[in-house]
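To fix ideas, we reproduce below one chain and its tokenised fold.
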Amino acid sequence: MERIEGGCLCGAVRFVATGSPKSVFWCHCQGCRRHSGAPVSVFVGFRHSAYQVTKGEIAKFASSPGTVRGFCRTCGSTLTCETTQLPGETHFHVGAFDDPSRLEPTIHFFRDEQLPWLHLS
């Protein structure tokens, strides 16, 4: 993968990432469920040096100790998650990319918090 673009629902925030992602993963933690409103989140991790915001600004808030989440200040789209556990990386919600079909998750995190009715391979 050489270049992949994305942004929020309203278009106020746009970003571009270059190179291969560090990881693409499912996250089952309660914090991600609450931030996204979905039963599970899929994230695409890039080093800070591998992406840039090309339009607008990703608003951020500290959702819990060691975790900062990003969103669009205009439309509220969930965009990113950064943790002190993985310094130097930003994890973008896969749905924020223009072509998320290129980004298939390969691992699960916090599987012990997975909702019992959610069945994934």
Observations:
- The chain has a mean pLDDT of 94.
- Residues 30-36 form the longest helix (7 residues).
- The radius of gyration is 14 Å.
